[in-house]
Amino acid sequence: MTQEQELLAQNSPHWTRLILAAFPALKHRNYRLFFVGQTTSLIGTWMQAVALSWFVFELTHSVFWVSFVFALDTLPIFFFTLPAGILADRFDKRKIFLITQTLSMIFALLLSALAHFELANLAFIIIIALLLGIFHAVEMPSRQTFIFEVVGRKDASSAIALNSGIYNAARVIGPALSGVLITLFNIQLAFFLNGISFFAVIIALLKMRIAKKTIRIHHAHPLAQIKEGVHFAFTHKAIGIFLIVIGFNSLIPWSYHSIMPAVAKNMFGAESAGYGFLLSAAGLGALIGAMLVSGFSERINVAKLIGMTNIMVAVALLFFSLISSFVLANILMFFIGLGLITQAALINASIQRFSPDYIRGRVISVYSLMFLGMMPFGSFIIGALGSILGVADALRIFGMLSIFGAFVYFFFLQPKLNGELNK
Asked: What average pLDDT is seen over the chain?
């Protein structure tokens, strides 16, 4: 802890000291700036995500096109995130983050203008969604490892879990706000407010005081550097297991999200506000999960908790596909969000702790590939099943596959992971 952080902890009110003790990453001034800016921006991002899915559903009335456009946010990760890991290891992460955030702001405002002047057809939406997905893919390794650098190894688990908390607080607030805005005003207002929200994170990044860091010079060919990162990630026994788990769960249980507009309307008769409430329920569960990981990361049995969250999510998803009660649906969404984000925060923090500084960006790019890069494939599959069989049957199939995955982990992977973590 630096002298500045010690003074902050000693001279703060009692309730502030309690918060800093529970969430030590907040002792760092730069992280507090990041926390506030990113929270504001992500609320806007979730407002746009919900509005865009609803907009596509209103334009096409197609489950497939909703899941297709949703997948475009993560599909570029499959192609761009490994090269982006090299950028994260070789260049100033804050500058990369600033560039991608500025470009995302410009295209959010463009989308608002197109919607306002009634020029936003499906082709325009697909192009903009794809570009936003590319920006997301490029910035992800830099953002993830930038957080690690801001707080250091000791407070990394707290910062990563709090970052998941930011993301999921936005999942609570953003969808609810988006549903209300669409109902009372129009969709383009949600897009516009998202564009404006990027100013918060851009200003926060500019106000940070970051010490210059010596960046290791890489003379190897970029493909050799990518190969080095992939080889390290999959040959490290603990990281390899983490990647298998997050990859499977990204492909199967996480895919429910892509067909939620159709689920809200077809299974529960809900309009945009009801759709927003379902996503907010999942976001609230995810927020609580992230806070638990941040506050208790040092006392958590990682391998065991991953197994418990696998079972929680699988059972909740299967039951969700069988019900017609909107109230019960929100309760189950809470547990789905709780389980998925608790697990993702644990895996992210664990992988970063096991990764040396010189290769962390590339290892996290592999994590991003397995996590978000697999989502579009799950989205395509569940979207196609939803179009053919109906969304309830599609969710039921994915719920049963999730239960199968939970049992495979419990009997085969959890004992191996426990052995690696206890070495």
From this structure: 86
